[in-house]
Amino acid sequence: MSWQAYVDQQLVGTGHVTKAAILGHDGSQWAATAGFSVSEGKQLAAQFANPNSAFSEGIKVAGVKYMTIKADQRSIYGKKGAGGCVCVKTNQAILVGMYDENIQPGQCTTVVEKLADYLIENNLNDLAFSCSRWLR
User: Fold this and answer.
1) Which pLDDT belongs to residue 124?
2) In whole angstroms, what separates CA 85 from the centre of its chain?
3) Sheet holding 75-80, edge to edge
4) Which of 21, 56, 65, 87 is the most exposed place for a label (fewest CB within 10 A)?
5) Binned average pLDDT, 10 residues per bin, the chain of 136 residues
6) Among residues 107, 125, 114, which one has the least CA distance to residue 15?
7) Do 45 and 23 contact (CB within 8 A), yes or no?
8) What residues have CB less than 8 Å from 95, skipping those under 6 apart?
9) Are strands 29-32 and 59-61 parallel, antiparallel or unpaired?
10) CA 91, CA 8: separation in Å to the nearest integer?
């Protein structure tokens, strides 16, 4: 499955994520919902290495600053009004899921965290990354 398929089918396709992106640990964007771009990927990646910075600086995704409600080396959650973001780090990627007022935060969180678990358990990030490098 391509990274774009994970965004379209496993994240946004569930109906519990409004927009999504998959980033590399270097902050580069591998796949995203049409019209959605996370230009702050490097900043976001750095916040996983230093989760306290997410609390002091907030989280910025697609030009919007979110108040941090959780931050550790695996997951960073942000909230702004009735919407928010769920960011989860896997072996090689960072999954970013967004939700709005029509979606419960827990629904979005469950979808993004479960996809991260699946990718980690099946070591798919390492395999996909290795294959993409080999095909270049």
Assistant:
1) 59
2) 8
3) 29-32, 19-24, 93-99, 83-89, 75-80, 64-71, 59-61
4) 56
5) 93 98 96 96 96 96 97 97 97 96 97 96 58 39
6) 107
7) yes
8) 11, 20, 21, 22, 86, 87, 88, 89, 112, 115, 116, 119
9) unpaired
10) 21
* Count, residues in the chain: 136
Residue type, 44: L
Burial class (CB in 10 A: 0-12, 13-18, 19+), 61: buried
**Helix, strand, coil abundance in the chain, percent, nearest 5:** 40, 30, 30
Type of residue numbered 63: G
Residue range 57-92, pLDDT digits in tens: 999 999 999 999 999 999 999 999 999 999 999 999
21 and 8 Cβ atoms separated by less than 8 Å: no
